[in-house]
Predict the 3D structure of the following.
Amino acid sequence: MAIPTQIKSDTNLLLEYREVRQQSLHICKPLQAEDFVVQPISDVSPPKWHLGHSTWFFENFILAEYYKNYKRFDERLNYFFNSYYESQGPRILRSNRGNITRPGVETILEYRHYVDEHMEQLLQTSLHQEVKDFIRIGLHHEQQHQELLITDIKYILGTNPFFPVYTKSEVGGRKSEIGPANWISISEGIYNIGYQDNGFCFDNELGVHKVFLHDFEIQNRLITNGEYLEFMQNGGYHHFEYWLSEGWEWAKQLEIKAPLYWYEKDSEWYHYTLNGLRQVNLNEPVTHISYFESDAYARWRGLRLPTEFEWEVACNYLHHDIPVNGNFMETEHYHPIAQQDEQDTQLLGNVWEWTGSAYLPYPNFPRLKGALGEYNGKFMVNQMVLRGGSCATPRSHIRPTYRNFFQTDKRWQFTGIRLAK
Amino acid sequence: MAIPTQIKSDTNLLLEYREVRQQSLHICKPLQAEDFVVQPISDVSPPKWHLGHSTWFFENFILAEYYKNYKRFDERLNYFFNSYYESQGPRILRSNRGNITRPGVETILEYRHYVDEHMEQLLQTSLHQEVKDFIRIGLHHEQQHQELLITDIKYILGTNPFFPVYTKSEVGGRKSEIGPANWISISEGIYNIGYQDNGFCFDNELGVHKVFLHDFEIQNRLITNGEYLEFMQNGGYHHFEYWLSEGWEWAKQLEIKAPLYWYEKDSEWYHYTLNGLRQVNLNEPVTHISYFESDAYARWRGLRLPTEFEWEVACNYLHHDIPVNGNFMETEHYHPIAQQDEQDTQLLGNVWEWTGSAYLPYPNFPRLKGALGEYNGKFMVNQMVLRGGSCATPRSHIRPTYRNFFQTDKRWQFTGIRLAK
Amino acid sequence: MAIPTQIKSDTNLLLEYREVRQQSLHICKPLQAEDFVVQPISDVSPPKWHLGHSTWFFENFILAEYYKNYKRFDERLNYFFNSYYESQGPRILRSNRGNITRPGVETILEYRHYVDEHMEQLLQTSLHQEVKDFIRIGLHHEQQHQELLITDIKYILGTNPFFPVYTKSEVGGRKSEIGPANWISISEGIYNIGYQDNGFCFDNELGVHKVFLHDFEIQNRLITNGEYLEFMQNGGYHHFEYWLSEGWEWAKQLEIKAPLYWYEKDSEWYHYTLNGLRQVNLNEPVTHISYFESDAYARWRGLRLPTEFEWEVACNYLHHDIPVNGNFMETEHYHPIAQQDEQDTQLLGNVWEWTGSAYLPYPNFPRLKGALGEYNGKFMVNQMVLRGGSCATPRSHIRPTYRNFFQTDKRWQFTGIRLAK
Amino acid sequence: MAIPTQIKSDTNLLLEYREVRQQSLHICKPLQAEDFVVQPISDVSPPKWHLGHSTWFFENFILAEYYKNYKRFDERLNYFFNSYYESQGPRILRSNRGNITRPGVETILEYRHYVDEHMEQLLQTSLHQEVKDFIRIGLHHEQQHQELLITDIKYILGTNPFFPVYTKSEVGGRKSEIGPANWISISEGIYNIGYQDNGFCFDNELGVHKVFLHDFEIQNRLITNGEYLEFMQNGGYHHFEYWLSEGWEWAKQLEIKAPLYWYEKDSEWYHYTLNGLRQVNLNEPVTHISYFESDAYARWRGLRLPTEFEWEVACNYLHHDIPVNGNFMETEHYHPIAQQDEQDTQLLGNVWEWTGSAYLPYPNFPRLKGALGEYNGKFMVNQMVLRGGSCATPRSHIRPTYRNFFQTDKRWQFTGIRLAK
């Protein structure tokens, strides 16, 4: 998470609060109590932890500071729900989150209810702009955890031998095979990068600055499962020459031979989706691949990934607004959808797109003070930037300037590929 | 688990079946759904796994074999609930048991119900002795898992920062300090070892044979918390000379400084019990210690642990029957109790007693055929024998000849110390 | 290693060959036979391996291809001395290099002699430009291994409790304390980056391209031991807020509290140098620090590391030639030297300078074909760029456009800090 | 190592000293300087370490105590050559022994010379019996390290892809195939176990005591390579039912499919011996196998390993003296030899024989005081007893009561199998 610094509008903060908070519960509706507890890999947090941690954020940073004589729901929860903030006291080892069965889901729902009641009271009083800004940070923070809830639930259910269905959702999708991608050309020049508007953004989008870009071309859609299967069938996972050395070691050691959630049965490829186990649709964008795989795929094609600057310039060039009918969390399909027509650039929504840019601070990146400042740039090393949001990202959470980032071996997020040259 | 070979009586097998099966559910009553799922360390299985696995045993080895046209509840459960039997097909990695949230507890209770209905029907028909014997193995197998249920639940709750109370139970216990232990003397001679009666026993108790014992003395009670604290306060954990080399490395690396579940607060020692967090009672037997600690304690005292043969001879010498008022699972105290008076030898119940004997086959140890034979002696290496049962052992499950065994670093069972010389 | 693509001059290739090959032996002169064998950490290769591998390069890529009827010295050496090239057959696991005692040093010196004789014969014939170019690559490759020889020997001797002296060398160095660094200002604009000359360069310097830089300032010298000690004495290693999250975990886990080779004795800091164990000289540049430490130091000062583009632009602005009196390998001091005067920018030689740039391909980065192409960009992920060369770099090997790269936790190279803002 | 407590004769101690000390150097004669340094696995110590450590034993426990005004060769060697004794100060981590190149072999030979000169002077004075006893312990200690020198050298050379020959030695060996083993019967009764003579023994042989043995039979020779190959060809390594559970996991994880040093080439089995790589001789005893493999082999045959008590009773029954023509270190063949005739029981020499007994203290096992007492019983857990000595054991070092011990997965010693029933 990074931190916003400029916040202007504050209309309807109470309504926004209700809506966002309600959405987290909505995501958890299909779960059984047992699903809320486990942490099959260190990256994946138990759903009940997400519900508690996003609540703790409001209790700890808002109510404890600004609600007079606030009495905490249970002092001991701090230890469990503090994710990261060294300044906020000791906390449970991340890898132990999945062993903690109490407090149970019921108690955490009570905790949410308790905090929400107090927050609603607070929101009906007159608040300083600073407090309102902090609350909005909390809501964006919760939206980030909504995306994680979806991907973590997918991991918990998708590595279960019973492949339980999370939600039934069918998308028509076009039946005809998708043709080759088109190339969009952008001319060389000096471009502005970073968030320059008046709304909300995170601090890693700030430090607006100029970059020089040479002429480049970028594809008008995402790489499909069909195209990725060609790579696999051409021995993509067996030819050293396509891979970064570290990626090759990674794939060998973990015996990676396909995207995460893919299973071969009788020479047909299936994959687990939140709609259940399904045959792989060749028209849909490939997803759940690492940076290593994205880079190997690009090299195999003789092409490359775009830089994050190229991506942002292309996105600004093509879009003026976030598409209303984009494939975001609100669609509740929770899976990428095939390109609809040639105007459908798939730049926002569907899958996060790996770029060829390392996650580093922009020139003049601002440093925040205080507890929230702890996140400030702390992760700006050994990660790559992803752009564009996914089918698990809330629509109101994404922007063309939004910088997401993950280590090069991560695959449990909805990640995919777009090529450049 | 080991395997019985001689089975005589079969009266009331149906009643026995009901009672044992009911008991497993009774143990789980205080749990919330979340508690059933996790596996905080590899040794500890999720409670729902114990419930399912002991049921699978009846389905797989009894119903599938002897119930005509039996239809399995769900074929896929085999993969999840097969613990060990290579001959029964592929199975989940032990260390992954705690990541499997589905089937949930509800489904597993339905599974138990389904199997119980079919078992009850089967038990009301006329059965060959062999089938009855197999069913009785299944019941003893389930009793072993009842003890594991209790110790695993203790681990799950006891490593939770909230220290939840599993059951309220107060035992009066004597207030006055316990005096020094007395010594019981046994003369040298040739003794018979192993199970020679007509009831049920496991195969590792068979191969009845003679051993020669020199004169020895054994204490008339278990080592208390008070005595163990003396060891701690005399630097027991800091003096290399008391420890086996491997034990010293173990304690250094894991920073072991007290029994499992012990916590120091303001210079007072507390420990987690299934009755909640309590101050350590100096009169109660020390428990949750490894073989390494038991051996170091004995060496510090200038004494030693008894061999399993000395223990068995002493037990046969002192007891003719399993004590009716012993501190077993049925007491539902789930914690060792201080010696009541000098006649209370604490040999059966309370805590498993580490012996100085490695777990090895008796001369003429029999080999079983078939799937159950897989367990046969498979674990007879790098483990030490424990004797006597604990406060978590069903009373009908223990015998003076019963051989339990664990690796030398294990501490999550109710384990304790008795000294010899 | 990266690969040159443009090679023009080829005068005196035979003399060059002799000189470079001789230099490797010269570096090993102070060693005992035992020093040639070991590999205390995976990064550090045994000196005899460097001698053999650089020889194998000529045998395998030059003689086997271009020397008619060439008979290999010993076919089996391929397995041992192939470092990396998948296309050149199976090879020993990198981490096992230090367990292979045979062939011994004597045999490897015979191997060098054998290959050199054949190479000298070949070099006295008329060769195609392509072959000459390949030979020159081999020489630059050997120079890279000369630097590694020095740093690996330092590690082998410097982690020996006897701290053996490798070479006696005293540098006067100025006695007076160095004043604050000055700032050099560079104006915003579009700059060319990459190698544009006619000599030798590696492929990662190619793909000459334009970047836009905002105004920036860069210090006129390296950070000194004295300045770094201030950081340490101000709790630099104990304050989370200065560190990247991953760096903090790294320092905690490995208990890092000072640069590599530093030892505290009676409140004084000493460090191992190739001249023996010496008290830390406050005027000398700090070295043997990781990217994590460099970044934390910069954050503590409220400043930052320069990007590799800023560094290159500053270096081109200040220097027209490689300084003849720079502190390179040829100086045989093998340790950084204090800034001589304010004109001494220390940009070339002394220590490699961590930049804030991730190691990534330049736009239009060329791809090579064939076995040498394997190195091509294989390492362009999760590493940071270092610039400027060190006291262990051959003078003829460095250029302002030279891009070195290491993972963010590496410390055994001569690495240091320069700040920007 | 264990510690002797009864020492009677002391004739010719000086001559004995010279002979034993000389023997260690003799073993190292075929080595190159590089061979002395490495430690390819933690079990294997560098040869120069053995030479130094056995010397340090005399310096530290004899000269420093009993030679007036003794000046140590180099104080700093204590850190490097203290193997284990906590009471003798800090020491290097065992796993780091192979990274320490200085002091080199030359210096260690000087160290030996220096200590030997002082020891010879001391031995020419009149000494208390206690001192003589300690010196003799030192000699037996050095003999133990002579066996380790041989097995460690074998590992260092035998895992080198060049398979260097350590010594040329051909043993005629009989050509005709060996017939089935005969069975020796021993009657049930009470037997004395442990060392009861007047010579030297280690403390783990003391605590002479009685055991009751049932009737048993034991084979009159070791298991051959031919017999072991039958096991392999019958899928011995692939059938779970022959294996201890822990042994099965071990073999699966490390992909163990044959004894250590065996290699299959064109459907023929070869193995590395100190005489070089040779085809496996079917008549020779199988060696370099773990306890797990020995136990699996026995189970496959439907037989078992003897206990250490059965072995000792059989050995005492069959042998009155150590065979002069046995295959010990002095033979300098360094490899087991086929049974010569039916009188050749192979009980002493050739290979250490795994027994079915865990390594535990005898009743009344004595405890030693002082630094040497540290070894006392420190290793009596999770190891199995081996009996009989090997082709690398000095003849004067072995006895029928000698108890060797190793963990159940160790294979780099000369270990083999004899069966009982």
About this structure: Chain B touches chain A at residues 32-40, 48, 76, 79-80, 92, 96, 98-106, 156-157, 159-162, 164 (CB under 8 Å). The first strand of chain B starts at residue 183 and ends at 186.
